[in-house]
């Protein structure tokens, strides 16, 4: 089995070395890792580092992060395709867990959980994967995407059937992609965290909030229920579900909300 990991980059040097090392720690005799860097024009030594580490490199201008991920995915031989940002970290044992879940379930896509960290690597909480019975109709009722793309793996045939990410969505391409995938078939849920998602304050979702909201609205209009009561039911059902199974995340949200109201500078979580 070949597992392709696509990392889109643009001047990713501050964190890229740690990202690469975390992927290499997942090497196994049971599969081959194909870690490909898709670079949009870095000038900070990113390409030199990737080359020195023996990674495959694709360069050239792209139309955003999802276009870059598509390029890396379609220009690879991976049986499974995964995506990780240059500032994220893969947890040890992650790919063994994903490969085992795929082999046992025969599912064409696998979804795991994440650990949030800050730009210094400090722990911020965890988010487990949504239940595998969640449909596309339920999924889009939330105001944010609970399926994390850095903890999601597709088989090549499913990725090709879906024609990759829709690059018209600059910030909500993952929200749309996962809704389309759910409309085809459910995923295999991995109950553990498999990657650290680094919140640096310069993440795409932070820098382009208004554009992201517009993308999310378009996806919700396409896949969500027309009934407002049904939409609100699923929204608050999953809000309660996520809070219940992610106590550290839930507690931190409450704490930061109180700090914010009291005038402290606190990072907000959805």
CATH homologous superfamily label: Spore Coat Polysaccharide Biosynthesis Protein SpsA, Chain A
Largest sheet: 9 strands, mixed
CATH topology: Spore Coat Polysaccharide Biosynthesis Protein SpsA, Chain A
Proportion of residues in β-strands: 15-25%
Order of helices and strands: EHEHEHEEHEEHEHHEHHHH
Task: Describe the protein in words.
The protein is an alpha/beta fold. The protein has helices at 13-24, 46-52, 65-74, 94-105, 136-139, 156-161, 173-184, 204-207, 209-223, 228-245, 247-261; strands spanning 2-9, 32-39, 56-59, 80-83, 89-90, 109-118, 123-127, 152-155, 188-199. It has a single domain (2-261), classed as Spore Coat Polysaccharide Biosynthesis Protein SpsA, Chain A (Alpha-Beta Complex). It is globular. Residues 266-270 have low confidence and may be disordered.
Task: Describe the structure concisely for a colleague.
Helix content is 43%, strand content 21%. By secondary structure, the protein is of the alpha/beta class.
Distinctive features:
270 residues; alpha/beta; Spore Coat Polysaccharide Biosynthesis Protein SpsA, Chain A; nine-stranded mixed β-sheet; 11 helices; disordered C terminus
């Amino acid at each position: 089995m070949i597992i392709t990991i696509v990392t889109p980059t643009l001047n990713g040097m501050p964190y890229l070395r740690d990202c690469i090392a975390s992927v290499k720690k997942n090497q196994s005799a049971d599969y081959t890792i194909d870690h490909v860097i898709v670079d949009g024009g870095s000038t900070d030594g990113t390409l030199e580092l990737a080359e020195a580490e023996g990674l495959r490199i694709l360069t050239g201008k792209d139309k955003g992060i999802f276009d870059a991920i598509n390029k890396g995915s379609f220009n690879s031989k991976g049986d499974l395709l995964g995506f990780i940002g240059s500032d994220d970290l893969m947890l040890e044992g992650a790919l063994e867990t994903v490969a085992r879940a795929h082999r046992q379930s025969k599912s064409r896509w696998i979804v795991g959980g994440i650990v949030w960290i800050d730009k210094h690597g400090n722990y911020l909480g965890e988010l487990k994967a949504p239940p595998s019975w969640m449909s596309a109709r339920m999924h889009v009722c939330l105001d944010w995407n609970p399926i994390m793309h850095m903890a999601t793996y597709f088989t090549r045939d499913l990725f090709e059937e879906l024609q990759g990410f829709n690059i018209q969505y600059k910030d909500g391409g993952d929200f749309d992609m996962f809704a389309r995938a759910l409309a085809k078939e459910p995923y295999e849920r991995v109950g553990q965290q498999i990657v650290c998602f680094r919140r640096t304050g310069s993440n795409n979702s932070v820098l382009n909030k208004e554009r992201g909201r517009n993308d999310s609205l378009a996806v919700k209009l396409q896949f969500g229920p027309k009934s407002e009561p049904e939409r609100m039911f699923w929204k608050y059902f999953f809000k309660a579900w996520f809070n219940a199974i992610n106590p550290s995340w839930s507690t931190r949200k409450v704490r930061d909300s109180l700090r914010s109201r009291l005038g402290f500078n606190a990072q907000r979580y959805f």
